[in-house]
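To whoever is on call:

I kicked off a structure prediction for a single chain this morning and the downstream step that reads the tokens threw a length-mismatch warning. I double-checked the sequence; it's 112 residues and nothing unusual in it as far as I can see. Pasting both halves so you can look.
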Amino acid sequence: MPLALAAIGVAAVLAGTDTAAAGTGGTEFNDIWVNITDWVEGTLGKVVAMSMILVGIFMGIARQNLMTFAVGLGAGLGLNYAPTVVDSIMTATIKQAEGITPIAIQVGNGLL
């Protein structure tokens, strides 16, 4: 009996996955996103990123360790490219999807 209930539960979950859709709303936060993106990609973002890199250089010299330089460089680059990465992840559009032909590949174990 518990196996049958588990099977029904799995079937219900799999049947419901077809109806999942990404949200298309969120326009009320668009002004905030544009404002933050302008700050990060503008002069303010460049100054902050360069400051992170310079602090990493100076701390690397003071500690005689290249790891602090690498952290400063990584933080500066991460700040600079963060809006592009977030846009790429959240939009999730594949421009070449119309031209892709689905192909099914069957992999067997060689016994049949």
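Update from on-call: the warning came from a stale cache, not from the record. Cleared it. Sanity check on the structure: Residues 44-88 form one domain.
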